[in-house]
Q: What sequence folds into this?
């Protein structure tokens, strides 16, 4: 599936619910599906600190694709983290850099990515792109 | 006192819906809502008599200058300052403390000196003093707290010494709601001729503040936390101190005579008011103080104590809920956590039920560190809130528990 197809699927899934509590319940369930980050990586190096909630993000690059594992101390944040992983993990650096993330806006979670909300999510998106850029540059060097 | 329906009808925003549900506004510690009279007064300046203050020879400038100076007098009367020249307009409590930290520091603080604050301070009453200490090689001393969220006063006495240049403490903890024994703190400092600055950001709106009785040397507060506009605040200082301190910022209006060789400064309070002040904000603040006086500050205090008691009883009864800040002497603020549930999750779900609370560290990270938590949920009530709204909060909390259990 392309990144756009995955984003469209998420939008479809959320469109079934009008009520915010249902959307949150869906996010809570999705958060449970995230493979837990190895506790040994829950360290400062992989921590993206927000004033509201924390996010840990670890990239793994096999020379072709970047796999992300992540976690958060807040469950709703973990749900959104799981969506970002679903969309961006297992992709090439080039794909990650060029992806426009439109699904967050469309499922009504944009407020969670506002710079003032400081829950670590906006920084997480930035960090994912930064890792991709770094691996991309490294690849081009080789 | 006006009845609650009448009071609520003074605040247009309280009638609105959020996410299709009636707004329950419990974030008064962050900012309070504005009565129509405040909105009208700011609107009136901008609509009918906007002109830059203290500058023009024209009619509008005269009118706004007069309203601005009347606002200063109103603030002085409200906190019972001796003279209106002791009232400096700033951008808010943060602006007031930064002004004092700079001006006081330049004049009086040198290497090896000490400034005392408490563990309960908002970052705004920590960081400006740390910056001063770094500039001057001075030391910051911190009054410790106990598990109720109150300061340990005996430890404060031990910190006072001949090296202490200033004590700067909050009147009320923004994170926990604890009321500090400022009168006692001031008395002890004064016995050693040490001046005291009181951060009134969370104190001014909850009862009578009388700087003469309190005998503080400086007092700071924000307009927007006492039902006035944002971007306006007050630094009160005893005249004898303010006249000794150098100005903080240079610019227009704060000068007497400017030449390229030397500038002499204007008299008080203008020495501390460089550039065009936020006069619509000051005029709005005066309207807010009028409103509060109309309701009656004793009435506000009584009503908020009732709300605190009701909410404390209801919240204490919730299984798995822990209140942080259990001092007997509190304003109507309750900081809490639900066992095993992140404050952000709690706040997000309450929000979608129309209930506005604050989550996070409340700009008071040391307090959170003391309790070993990353943050909390803070519900802060004021006199326009109702027991029915507290019941809604309880229902909301039960919903949160059911979702994250």
A:
């Amino acid at each position: 599936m392309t990144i756009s197809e995955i984003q469209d699927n998420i939008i479809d899934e959320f469109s079934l619910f009008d009520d915010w509590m249902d959307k949150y319940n869906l996010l809570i369930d999705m958060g449970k599906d995230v493979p837990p980050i190895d506790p040994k990586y829950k360290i400062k190096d992989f921590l993206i600190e927000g004033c509201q909630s924390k996010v840990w993000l670890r990239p793994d690059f096999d020379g072709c694709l970047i796999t992300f594992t992540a976690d958060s101390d807040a469950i709703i944040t973990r749900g959104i983290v799981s969506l970002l992983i679903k969309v961006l993990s297992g992709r090439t650096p080039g794909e990650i850099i060029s992806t426009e993330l439109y699904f967050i806006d469309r499922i009504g979670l944009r407020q969670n990515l506002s710079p003032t909300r400081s829950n670590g999510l906006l920084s997480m998106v930035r960090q994912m792109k930064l890792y991709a850029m770094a691996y991309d540059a490294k690849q081009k060097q080789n | 006192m006006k009845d609650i329906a009448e009071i609520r009808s003074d605040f247009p925003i309280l009638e609105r819906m959020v996410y299709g549900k009636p707004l329950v506004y419990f974030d008064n510690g962050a900012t309070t809502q504005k009565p129509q009279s405040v909105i009208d007064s700011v609107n009136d300046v901008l609509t009918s008599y906007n002109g830059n203050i203290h500058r023009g020879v024209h009619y509008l400038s005269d009118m706004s200058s007069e309203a601005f100076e009347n606002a200063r007098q109103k603030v002085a009367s409200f906190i019972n300052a001796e003279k209106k020249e002791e009232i400096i307009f700033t951008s808010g409590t943060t602006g007031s403390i930064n002004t004092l930290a700079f001006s006081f520091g330049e004049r009086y603080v040198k290497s090896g000196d000490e400034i005392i604050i408490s563990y309960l301070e908002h970052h705004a009453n920590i960081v400006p003093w740390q910056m001063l200490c770094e500039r001057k090689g001075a030391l910051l001393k911190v009054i410790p707290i106990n598990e109720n969220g109150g300061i340990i006063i005996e430890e404060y006495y031990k910190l006072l010494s001949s090296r202490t240049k200033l004590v700067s403490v909050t009147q009320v903890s923004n994170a926990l709601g604890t009321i500090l024994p400022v009168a006692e703190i001031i008395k002890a400092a004064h016995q050693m001729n040490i001046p005291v600055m009181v951060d009134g950001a969370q104190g001014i709106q909850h009862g009578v503040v009388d700087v003469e009785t309190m005998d503080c040397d400086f007092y700071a507060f924000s307009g927007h936390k006492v039902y006035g506009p944002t971007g306006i605040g007050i630094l009160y200082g005893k005249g004898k101190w303010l006249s000794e301190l150098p100005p903080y910022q240079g610019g227009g209006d704060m000068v007497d005579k400017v030449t390229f060789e030397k500038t002499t400064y204007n008299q008080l309070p203008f020495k501390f008011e460089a550039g065009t002040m936020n006069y619509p904000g000051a005029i709005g603040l005066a309207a807010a103080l009028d409103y509060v006086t109309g309701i009656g500050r004793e009435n506000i205090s009584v009503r908020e104590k009732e709300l605190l008691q009701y909410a404390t009883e209801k919240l204490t009864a919730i299984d798995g809920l822990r209140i942080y800040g259990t001092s007997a002497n509190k304003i109507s603020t309750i900081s809490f956590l639900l066992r095993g549930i992140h404050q952000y999750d709690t706040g997000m779900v309450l929000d979608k039920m129309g209930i506005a609370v604050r989550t996070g560290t409340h700009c008071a990270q040391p307090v959170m560190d003391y309790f070993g938590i990353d943050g909390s949920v803070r519900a802060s009530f004021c006199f326009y809130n109702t027991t029915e709204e507290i019941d809604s909060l309880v229902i909301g909390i039960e919903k949160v528990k059911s979702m994250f259990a």
